[in-house]
Amino acid sequence: MSDEKKKKGLKGVGRKGKKSPKRTDLTKEGILTPDEEIAQAVAHSAVRKKKANTRKRNMKYAVILGGILFFSYGVYQLFIPHQGTIGFGVCKVFLEQNVQYPHTLHLSKVEQFSTSVRIWFTQTDSFGEYRMEPIQCFFRAHEEWGFELDKVTIRRRELDPAIVERFNPTIPYIKAAPPDLSLPMPLPDSLENLKIDLSRYIKPIF
Prior knowledge:
Elements: H1 3-10, H2 23-28, H3 34-79, H4 86-97, E1 106-112, E2 116-124, E3 130-142, E4 146-154, E5 157-158, H5 161-167, H6 171-176
Antiparallel strand pairs: 1-2, 2-3, 3-4, 4-5
């Protein structure tokens, strides 16, 4: 063989006798053309932009939803009655059991202290007239059920201790199934906003 033929035969052969890959083979192996690289970068940029817009939209919806929930909770707190302690519940039950006509009771104001509860109430007496009176229940510690009534006063006059002693054994049952502990709405500070339904306090003639 001549030297020229040998040179022609060696063209396209690598250092170890392998043929060098063609341009099309490099593309198939994962090497992108400039146009393909640009298209891929544009696609990735569009995906990132779409994800960023989605995050912003979700954050906006979360803020709006949080604001709605916060506003709804505030409105709910404005309209629901506040709840009293179980001491208020015990004093309330004692009051209901020791008035002549418990269905005519109307609680006007509740004052809760560390060891007592005072309730201002109106009731119908034996003459059919309404009157506002305070009852105050004083508590003391008890080993079994936590606390019990120490004494009870109505119009600052102490009731018969025997009545209180007879009532005390019912306290565990009251604590197990407490009555409605909703406190009455406070009276308005302004006299202009104070409206009294006189029909509740006037005995009907006819």
